[in-house]
């Protein structure tokens, strides 16, 4: 199998599918060496994978230093290192040191009872289990049932539709607050229109159905509380945010509500699929567990 | 006209009604919204923040990093504010969550090997392929396994390597198509007009000789090709665009744009326009087509900023050192006073038909990465950074009549955990160690993250965000903004930045908000546009800034121009300096020199004192927040807080030393506007 793979690899890598120039190019640069290293690394690894028996601790004391053992590769390094990496003596020494200590640790049985090793292996198995599950099937009735059982999950939170005017605190919060108060009284007297008031604000100042959580994130707690209490349809304030001071006109509060299934069907289907997947994983796990005898003491 | 009249009437009517029922017990009436308009619609545009570069477990490298679980669905869940799980670390389970949800996102998995990944991870595709040693190795590799990267990564360095060998056992293209369909289905389902925009997209990833020439393809709507066009289908960019134009046609409702990124790692190739070929009509036509389809450059991301490089092209701007992953070429070190070799233009001798790699420091072989061994392919060119690219583009414009490097600017992450927009240095809610990294199980060990040899180490950063000025949060509106370039880049913060130029009266910043916005748009152009010739002859610039959480420190305009001798120049103007940088202590505590509330927003008017109507130029704004901890600073602080690190015992630890191995712990987050362009005789 390994040999077959290597032959396939060799054939594929040397196939001049872009004509003779490709092959010439291939021979010209350091690529050939790297391909050889790649094939070698691949072969070493294939051998490692093919041998289904785990290494017997304490027996195998020969360490083969792979030709291209390089520092850990990432996409950033990926092709640069793969093509140009020469590893260096220091890196090789570091690798050998790690391998020797790793082997010795296995030989001494240090992996047994080690929580970190155990957690890593468990995690790998979990990934394998998740990767093995196929897309589950379900009926419309199941979607409906799932939606009704988990309705609260789809609740839409309270939201606000409002506009605001901004007063910059460049010359202090007090000055901004005073100017906002004056503007508010002008608005109430009808001596000024909202369009003619407020300092330059870098962003838009009209918000439709902004969820309370987003108001909080964007403008802060004091603003949200003030907005919530603000009379509907008229200007009020001033309210403080971390950017400065605002006058607000709350048009409407949209109370928290449960949506209909049709409004959130896509999300519900997704959650149901997740749930079914989890069940598949549990089922596979159950099959594995059944192969063990669990003795509780 | 009619619709305006109706809206005015509706406003009047609603005011009357609202006045009539001001008590909250009575039914409340929302302000009128025209059909197709969102509640926050404004012709003066809102800022939306998002991430147009996110990888999931469907990307071969993300999988090799150990992200086997977080798929496109999880990427969107995360973008919308849900907590997601990363690979466990030796310390236990790891979760991440955004402090603030995003407004938009695009999952952009690598199109190369997307089918192979499916074959290797789904036994039902082909049992033979699934049990192929290569697939077995792929599934069980430890995060960052070097064999995995040799076998998978090396193949991206030459197009003719093509598909993996186990594809003889099954239909890799069909598998790729099914993964693409799945991603598209999820993306379309997650797109929620007015609340959250999800764009269909993918990454095209050529890496010839290790030169990154990657582009993200973003589709405007639901209509997409049957399968992505990959590097193996189209080794040259122009082939990519020709093939995409065939399978994604506007008349069928399919539109796309392309966003190149990591020009800083492209060894002079991504943004190269070869002056020696400007007499070849086909070459020029191809350049024009590429330019048309690539309106935006992702200039800030996990693998560094691509704004500029100290010394390169003669730059003396210290701020160019921000988030650099490339090592500084020694002979270009401005501090050593040796910059002349790095000045453009230098002879362009083609290197295997590619741009000349010797632009930097003839005789020296620059290293590819910080502290990495010398690499023969590691050349640096000034056009790997946007300033050099803009300058060469402006020089080319004199011959070509168009600028092949005219880009608007965005940031994004390139996160491989499906954690879209996870740019918070301190980490999200519940974070202990700060930012958790972006490479699966590879960056789960705090000590390894200080490493200078690995690329997941200290040189990475959490990445940037894309800011978009749009009327409302819908695909159509955001896409149009990307096309016209009214977008900006941030280093991950949500700083809002506007730049306009036009025939403006002075005193604009003293105008009321609404009036200022109207004048800004009616009498001038926003970022990304062409500066019109003004009646006064000298355009006036308007810069507006709104801080995120950290107060503002200063605002600048960077001007670039090419003189009559073909020599490029840069000059930086300071528009506002609100405070001297704050002092940041070992526990990331900040002591401001000026109270923050006085510098949370700013408005500046500016005129170029050297403005010459006969001289083409480009201008972009750059805004700095005050100092704060970089992710490394948060990590160092956390390790010390938890008692894992005592600097008294480990004075040589990167967190503790002030020597050469010291890690950068403090930074200034920032935003870059897209440029405004001026050309003599432009409309």
TrEMBL record, chain A:
Pfam families to which the protein is assigned, alphabetical: Rotamase_2 (PF13145)
MF annotations from Gene Ontology: peptidyl-prolyl cis-trans isomerase activity
Cross-referenced PROSITE patterns: PPIC_PPIASE_2
The enzyme's E.C. designation: 5.2.1.8
UniProtKB keywords: Isomerase, Rotamase
InterPro entries in the cross-refs: PPIase_dom_sf, PPIase_PpiC, PrsA_foldase
EC class name: isomerase
Catalytic activity: [protein]-peptidylproline (omega=180) = [protein]-peptidylproline (omega=0)
Residue ranges annotated for the PpiC domain, each copy included: 157-252
UniProt family annotation: Belongs to the PpiC/parvulin rotamase family.
Protein name: peptidylprolyl isomerase
Automatic annotation (TrEMBL), chain B:
Signal peptide range in chain numbering: 1-19
Cross-referenced Gene3D superfamilies: Metal-dependent hydrolases
Pfam families: DUF3604
InterPro entries: DUF3604
Source domain of life: Bacteria
Entry keywords, A to Z: Signal
Protein name as it appears in the record: Uncharacterized protein DUF3604
Species this protein is from: Sinimarinibacterium flocculans
């Amino acid at each position: 199998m390994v040999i077959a793979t290597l032959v396939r690899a060799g054939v594929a890598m040397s196939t001049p599918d872009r004509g003779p120039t490709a092959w010439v190019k291939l021979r010209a640069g350091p690529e050939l060496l790297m391909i050889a290293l790649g094939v070698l690394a691949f072969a070493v690894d294939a051998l490692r994978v093919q041998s289904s028996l785990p290494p017997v601790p304490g027996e195998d004391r020969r360490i083969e230093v792979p030709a291209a053992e390089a520092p850990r590769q990432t996409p950033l390094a990926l092709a640069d290192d793969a093509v140009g990496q020469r590893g260096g003596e220091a890196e090789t020494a570091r690798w050998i040191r790690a391998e020797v200590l790793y082997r010795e640790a296995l030989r001494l049985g240090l992996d047994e009872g080690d929580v970190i090793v155990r957690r890593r292996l468990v995690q790998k198995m979990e990934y394998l289990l998740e990767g093995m599950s196929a897309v589950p099937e379900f009926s419309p009735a199941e979607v409906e049932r799932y939606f009704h059982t988990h309705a609260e999950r789809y609740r839409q939170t309270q939201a606000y539709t409002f506009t605001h005017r901004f007063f910059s605190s460049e010359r202090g919060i007090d000055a901004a607050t005073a100017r906002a108060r004056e503007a508010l009284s002008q608005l109430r007297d009808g001596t000024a229109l909202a369009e003619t008031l407020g300092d330059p604000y870098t962003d838009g100042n009209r918000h439709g159905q902004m969820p309370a959580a987003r108001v909080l994130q964007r403008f802060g707690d004091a603003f949200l509380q003030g907005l919530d209490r603000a009379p509907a349809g008229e200007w009020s304030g001033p309210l403080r945010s971390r950017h400065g001071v605002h006058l607000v006109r709350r048009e409407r509060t949209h109370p928290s509500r449960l949506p209909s299934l049709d409004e959130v069907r896509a999300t519900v289907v997704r959650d149901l699929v997740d749930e079914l997947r989890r069940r598949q994983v549990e089922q596979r796990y159950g099959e594995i567990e059944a192969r063990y005898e669990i003795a509780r003491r | 006209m009619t619709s305006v009249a109706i809206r005015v009437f509706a406003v009047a009517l609603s005011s009357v009604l609202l006045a009539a029922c001001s008590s909250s017990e009575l039914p409340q009436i929302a302000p009128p919204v025209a059909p197709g308009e969102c509640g926050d619609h404004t012709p003066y545009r809102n800022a939306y923040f998002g991430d147009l570069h996110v990888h999931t477990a469907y990307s071969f490298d993300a999988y090799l990093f150990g992200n086997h679980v977080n798929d496109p669905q999880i990427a969107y869940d995360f973008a919308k504010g849900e907590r997601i799980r990363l690979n466990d670390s030796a310390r236990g389970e790891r979760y991440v969550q955004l402090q603030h949800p995003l407004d938009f996102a695009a999952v952009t998995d690598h199109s190369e090997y997307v089918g192979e990944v499916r074959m290797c991870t789904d036994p039902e595709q082909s049992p033979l392929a699934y049990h192929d040693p290569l697939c077995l190795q792929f599934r069980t590799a430890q995060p960052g396994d070097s064999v995995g990267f040799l076998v998978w990564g090396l193949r991206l360095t030459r197009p003719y390597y093509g598909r993996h060998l186990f594809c003889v056992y099954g239909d890799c293209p069909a598998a790729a198509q099914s993964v693409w369909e799945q991603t598209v289905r999820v993306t379309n389902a997650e797109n929620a007009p007015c609340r959250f925009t999800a764009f269909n997209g993918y990454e095209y990833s050529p890496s010839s000789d290790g030169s990154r020439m990657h582009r993200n393809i973003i589709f405007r709507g639901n209509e997409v090709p049957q399968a992505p066009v990959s590097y193996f289908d189209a080794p040259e960019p122009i082939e990519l665009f020709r093939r995409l134009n065939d399978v994604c046609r506007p008349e069928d409702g399919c539109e796309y744009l392309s966003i190149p990124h990591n020009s800083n790692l492209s060894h002079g190739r991504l943004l190269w326009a070869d002056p020696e070929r400007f007499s070849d009509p086909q070459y020029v036509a191809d350049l024009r087509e590429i330019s048309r389809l690539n309106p935006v450059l992702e200039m800030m991301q996990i693998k560094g900023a691509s704004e500029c490089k100290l010394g390169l092209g003669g730059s003396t701007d210290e701020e160019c050192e921000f988030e650099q992953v490339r090592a500084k070429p020694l002979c270009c070190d401005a501090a050593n006073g040796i910059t002349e070799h790095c000045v453009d233009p230098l002879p362009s001798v083609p290197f295997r038909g590619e741009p000349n790699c010797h632009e930097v420091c003839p005789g020296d072989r620059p290293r590819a990465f910080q502290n990495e061994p010398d690499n023969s392919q590691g050349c640096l060119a000034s056009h790997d950074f946007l300033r050099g690219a803009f300058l060469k583009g402006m020089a080319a414009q004199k011959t070509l009549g168009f600028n092949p490097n005219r880009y608007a600017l965005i940031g994004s992450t390139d996160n491989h955990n499906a954690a879209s927009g996870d740019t918070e240095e301190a980490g999200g809610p519940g974070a202990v160690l700060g930012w958790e990294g972006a490479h699966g199980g590879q960056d789960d060990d705090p000590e390894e993250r200080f490493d200078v040899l690995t690329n997941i180490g200290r040189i990475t950063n959490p990445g940037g965000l894309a800011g978009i000025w749009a009327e409302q949060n819908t695909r159509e509106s955001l896409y149009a903004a990307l096309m016209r370039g009214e977008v900006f880049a941030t280093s991950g913060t949500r700083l809002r930045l506007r730049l306009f130029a036009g025939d403006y009266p002075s005193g604009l910043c003293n105008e009321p908000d609404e009036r200022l916005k109207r004048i800004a748009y009616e009498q001038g152009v926003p970022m990304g546009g062409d500066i019109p010739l003004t009646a006064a002859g000298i355009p006036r610039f308007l810069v507006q800034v709104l801080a995120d959480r950290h107060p503002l420190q200063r605002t600048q305009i960077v001007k670039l121009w090419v003189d009559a001798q073909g020599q490029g120049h840069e000059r930086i103007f300071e528009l506002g300096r609100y405070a001297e940088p704050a002092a940041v202590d070992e526990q990331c505590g900040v002591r401001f020199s000026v109270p923050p509330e006085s510098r949370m927003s700013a408005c500046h008017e500016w005129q170029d004192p050297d403005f010459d109507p006969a001289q083409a130029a480009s201008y972009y704004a750059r805004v700095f927040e005050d100092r704060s901890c970089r992710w490394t600073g948060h990590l160092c602080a956390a390790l010390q807080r938890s008692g894992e690190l005592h600097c008294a015992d480990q004075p040589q630890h990167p967190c503790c030393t002030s020597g050469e191995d010291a890690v950068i712990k403090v930074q200034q987050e920032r935003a870059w506007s897209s440029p405004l362009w001026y050309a003599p005789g432009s409309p």
